[in-house]
Structures are given as structure tokens and as C-alpha cells.
Amino acid sequence: MWDPYKKGYKAWLQLEKSLSDNSIEAYLRDVDKLTQYLQTTGSLKAPDAVELNDLFQFLHWIAQLGLNAASQARILSGIRSFYKYCAIEQIVKNDPTTLLESPKLKRALPDVLSFDEIETIIGHIDLSKPEGGRNKAILETMYSCGLRVSEVVNLRISCLYLDVGYIRVIGKGDKERLVPIGTDAAKYIRIYQQEIRVHVPLKPGNEDILFLNRRGAKLTRVMIFLLLKDLARLSGITKNISPHTFRHSFATHLVEGGADLRAVQEMLGHESITTTEIYTHLDREFLRETLHRYHPAFKKPARE
Q: Per the CB 3.0–4.6 Å rule, which of 16, 90, 192, 219 could disulfide with 137?
């Protein structure tokens, strides 16, 4: 009964939302969970027959399966997306998800590295090895441009405009954006290209990929994760570090320096400004200093 709706929804996610295959599969799994629940009730209602109470019971059901609040919220996001499609296509008259509240989440903020810590990590790269020059170029680029790990491993030579200080990044859902690149990162990319990459035997299909392993193939995300873990250990940094830490630190440093949030959103490639807002967790001392500097009430001497 639901198969035609799922097919239509899949096509909508592909054509209208331009999502990646992985994201589309995740959204479809969410709808599958809803139909799975409806089957357990003995009544596989059509999408237009599902009511708010059915969705309340569905949330209770997935909670009993042992899924945490974050997983429940993600599934609910998929169900909301499905009903948005149904409303657009006039499959339903009323969206039953409108009054449905998401489970309350405790947003865990990732660790942030200071600029000095990032310099220390990059400084522990062994430049006497060929991969050292490549790794330095990778980390300088990740921090300079705030790239996702998938974006850095897929970075193409044809997307480099180093002479004008930009790179073209292909992000989530194949959305492209132009990001400024710092002079240091551009310098180390050039050194890597001219002195290291030229000596790597190319694996067919990887001619345009910038960062290659010693076999001439594209790097994996896991390799960059392990590289950072090793460098953090050598640097004596005990924070929980991943490639995303560099992206998070890039955004945090920009916001702390007074950058406009819309500009940060553009550089990070976030579709929604609300996603960018998680990067504004400025430390309390920074906020306090800002208030003392700019707020009239904080400038006044204490009342007697």
C-alpha cells in the first residue's frame, strides 16, 4: 500500500532536495519504521489516514525499542520530511506531524582546539617523509577552509583557484560553494603538488583528486581520523579529537573573532542558519569580556 508513496518520496528527495544516496536511504528507513509500527497494530493505514495519536504511539514504540532521544529525533525528522512531501503532492490534506514535539535533546558540544593547539598538532607532522608534506597541506586546508573530512578527501585539482585565493568545494547533496583559502594552506598545497604528488604513480580515475595515498588512490576518511589521533597523542593533547574538531574550531574561532554568522554559514555550507548556531558556543569569559567592553550597565562602576 505504501510502496507508491515511498517511490514518489524517493524521487522527490533526489530531484527536489538533491540529497546524497546515503541521506535518501536514511529517510526511507524512517518511513519503513513507521509502516513497520503500523503493521504491528494490525492496521496499515494509508498516509492520509494516519493521525497525531498514531504518531504519539509510534514515538512510544521506538522508545521501547531502546533508541535514545537523538535517534528518536532523527527518525521523527524523517517522518516530518515524508509528510511535507505528502502535503506538497496533496496526498494528505492535513499534516499529522505539525503538533508533534521532538524528544528533548541535550546538545553535546564537541571539543574545540585553540589556535595554538592546532599549530602544535600541525607542528608534529614529520616533514622528512613524503606523506608529511601531504598531511601538512591537508590539515592546513581543513583548518583554513573549515572543510568536512569528506570534502577534503574529494577535493579536486580542477576546483583549486589558488591564484585568486579560493577553492570550490562539493559538499552535502552535491551542493557547491566557493570558500576562501589562506595563503599558508595555498602555499603547502602548491609544495605538495610540485614536490610530492608529481612522484606518485596515479591510479586510473584519480587524476583530478588532489590528495592521494602512496598507491595513487584517493584517501579514506578513516586515514585522516587516525592521522589526527596520532598527532594529538604526540602533541600531548587529551581532548577528544576528530577531523570534525578542525571544522568546529574553524567556525568557533571565526565567531569569537566577530565574524558574521551568515558568512560562517556560507563558508561551512550549511543549508540552515540554525545548524550554524551550534558553533556559537562562545566560552563564558569571552562573553563576559564582550559585555564589559560594550554594554553600558557593565561599564558603570558598582553602585554604593
A: 192
